[in-house]
Specification:
This protein has 300 residues and is an all-alpha fold. It has twelve helices and no strands.
């Protein structure tokens, strides 16, 4: 194992310890505890099973939450981040150890994504409900577009490079900072990361450790900020954290691959519908606020 990889796993260990210590401390407060329902566990398992196969989980989880009607829209970004910490750790260990990639590029992109997620979580945790609805609606539409592009063969095919140098290295690291920030409003970073790296001539198989490693570090970093703000739903986040890890392990070591084309079309349709529903909710709240002659208040 190279020194950058040792640093990566050390960062994951430190940030995860800080996250789980705070989470367990919160769990001792009786008024916050909420057991995950069967639907929480089912959503966590299914969406993260698909995550490990390359579909991603943020858009699908958000869509299913919107259909179900809980948690509240403003709690979804924090719920996704807090719940996905254990999933991100599992995926990092699996993919970073199985697939070889330039360790310097890996560490630089993980660091930039983490910095972006830390800043993004601080902003999102203070946003108004309607702002979150608008941003998440837009994020879901972007995700649906990526699903359609993948099925139509519109993604760049990538190259053979396992490392990047010069301006390509800088571009990849800078872009990952932006994607890390955007992940805190529900835009998954898998598809955008693959597109950017493919355009730079990078080997797409080698992109997996970068995507998973970014999640393994930035999720606990951003998760701490959501824990402190209280802007997350306890039961659904526990559903992701527990059943989601099981879904990842089954997908990575037992199923390994599935014919995903038809599933991506279905996911694109579901996510598009959820995006429109989210934007309609924001529009209704704005109209209600104008009718009352006041602003839209946060509901936590």
């Amino acid at each position: 194992m190279s020194i950058p990889e040792i640093v990566l796993f050390a960062l994951i260990a430190i940030l995860s310890a800080l996250f789980f210590v705070q989470w367990f401390a919160l769990s001792r407060r009786r008024e916050l505890r909420e057991r995950p329902s069967w639907s929480d566990l089912g959503i966590g398992f299914l969406t993260n099973f698909g995550d490990a196969l390359g579909i991603g989980s943020y858009a699908t989880t958000t869509a299913l939450y919107k259909f179900r009607g809980r948690p509240s829209d403003e709690l979804i970004p924090g719920t996704l981040t807090v719940g996905s910490v254990s999933v991100g750790i599992a995926e990092t260990i699996i993919f970073v150890t199985l697939i070889t990639v330039d360790p310097k590029l890996l560490l630089a992109m993980v660091a930039s994504a983490t910095a972006g997620a830390w800043l993004g979580a601080g902003v999102v945790s203070r946003m108004r409900r309607r702002s979150i609805q608008v941003l998440m609606g837009a994020a879901l539409l972007v995700a649906a577009a990526f699903f359609v592009m993948g099925n139509l063969g519109s993604f760049p095919v990538g190259g053979a490079a396992l490392s990047l140098t010069g301006w390509k290295f800088v571009a990849a690291v800078a872009t990952n900072f932006v994607l890390g920030a955007l992940s805190t409003i529900g835009i998954g970073w898998y598809a955008p990361t693959m597109v950017i790296l493919a355009l730079l001539g990078f080997n797409l198989r080698a992109a997996f450790p970068i995507m998973m490693g970014s999640g393994g570090v930035m999720l606990p970093a951003a998760g701490v900020r959501f824990l402190r703000s209280g802007r997350f739903a306890w039961g659904p986040s526990v559903g992701i954290a527990t059943a989601g890890v099981l879904g990842v392990l089954i997908a990575a070591f037992i199923v390994k691959s599935l014919p995903l084309r038809a599933l991506r079309w279905l996911v694109a349709a579901v996510v598009t519908y959820a995006a429109l529903a989210m934007l309609r909710s924001a529009q209704r709240e704005a109209a209600a606020a104008r009718a009352e002659g006041g602003g839209v208040k946060d509901s936590v």
